[in-house]
Amino acid sequence: MLKELYHLISGRRRSMLLSMFLPTFLFGDIFDADAASQRTYQPTQAQRRLEAQRRLQNQRIAEIRRQNAARNAAKAAAARTADTAARAAAPKLRYTWIKSQRYILLRDIAKFYGLSLVHTKTGAVLRGAAKVDLYYNKRLASIDGVTVYFTTPPVLRGSNAYLNEKDLLLVLDPVLRGKALAKYPVRTIMIDPGHGGTDKGAAGAGGRLLEKNLNLSMALKLRAALRKLGFQVIMTRGADSTLSLQGRAELCKKYKPDLFISIHCNAAAQKTISGIETFAMTPNGCASSNDSKPGNSTGTGNSFDKNNYRMAYEIQKALLKNTKAEDRGVKHARFFVLRNASCPAVLIETGFISNLRESALLNRADYQAKIVNAIVTGVLNYRASYR
Fold it and tell me: Can you say whether residue 50 is alpha, beta or left, with left for phi > 0 and alpha for psi between -120 and 50 degrees?
């Protein structure tokens, strides 16, 4: 039957029919598969449920972020409002010009720190959370019983008392306000025993007691005490070796400590002089405590003027409490190691080796321990002052 049909159909028609039906007979499965691949994908119920959960989670995250952003914006606005209110409420510091320098009205300074002001015949007293004694035409003053030195004396003009602006910013403010200080870390401390080797420093009675040896003895004890508290300690010299001032400054620059403490003993031609004094770097354009004329010799140490003075104050305060020595004050000087320090730095004159009684004390282990413990206390109090 098929054979007959095949012969009945003409050649041309036969070719057309073969081109239409033969692919279906031969490749029908392939075309069915291609058609199936073009069908619309339908997710399962579990997939739809998972997708809904994912959308809900994203919505919750977006809502939490929106709430956090709104909360942070409200806090920032409140902080700005409080800051504006604080600035508006803060007393204005009025001033006058004296010899081309700005002097701040003492009455406004007292108000700024929340202290009362009482005038005396020779000066003024600020009382409250702290007690500050000032004397007209004298650089010497005291803060909570510790002697400090201003760079210029407070002055009285008519009924108004004034304090030099630099003394407010670089002496009074660092001691009264921790917020005035830069928050440097205090982890590594460099101890500098003054003199050494061929440089003997000052000598005690008869020349047998040498400053270089006392300085090293106290420095080694200080190193041990600080290490027990977890500080890293670097010594400029750990033995009786000669080291120049430049060499000490270069070590400070090389190791980049957080604090630099130079230990010395004092000496004077007048053998009755005694006491402890602690020095910080003199601010630019100011007179050192033992000089009357301002100087313009500056160095890297001036980058830390406020922190220098606060650390010197805390160490002097602790030394006086521990030793009961005479208070010679927190002073300014342009000593080489202070001027070239790359971190907050102080130089401590622990006592007068030229004084018979004080030199005997300095040579005693128990008195050295008092000095060392006081320096440690001063460092800890300095660090705590701006935390």
Answer: alpha
Query: In angstroms, rounded to a whole number, what is the distance separating the alpha carbons of residues 133 and 158?
Result: 20
Residues 6 or more apart whose Cβ sits within 8 Å of residue 70: none
Residue 270: half-sphere exposure toward Cβ, Cα within 13 Å: 4
Query: What six digits make up the tokens of 13?
Result: 């028609």
Each residue's pLDDT tens digit in the chain (387 positions)? 545 555 555 555 555 555 555 555 554 555 455 555 556 667 888 888 888 888 888 888 888 888 888 888 888 877 776 655 555 555 689 999 999 999 999 999 999 999 999 999 999 999 999 999 999 999 999 999 999 999 999 999 999 999 999 999 999 999 999 999 999 999 999 999 999 999 999 999 778 899 999 999 999 999 999 999 999 999 999 999 999 999 999 999 999 999 999 999 999 999 999 999 999 999 999 999 998 888 888 899 999 999 999 999 999 999 999 999 999 999 999 999 999 999 999 999 999 999 999 999 999 999 999 999 999 999 999 999 987
List domains and CATH numbers for the chain: 95-176 (3.30.457.10), 180-384 (3.40.630.40)
Crossing angle of helices 365-384 and 305-323, in 10° steps, is 140
Buried b (16+ CB within 10 A) or exposed e, 129-155: eeebbbbbeebebbbeebbbbbbbbbb
Q: What does the DSSP 8-state code read for residue 170? A: I
CB 162 within 8 A of CB 117: no
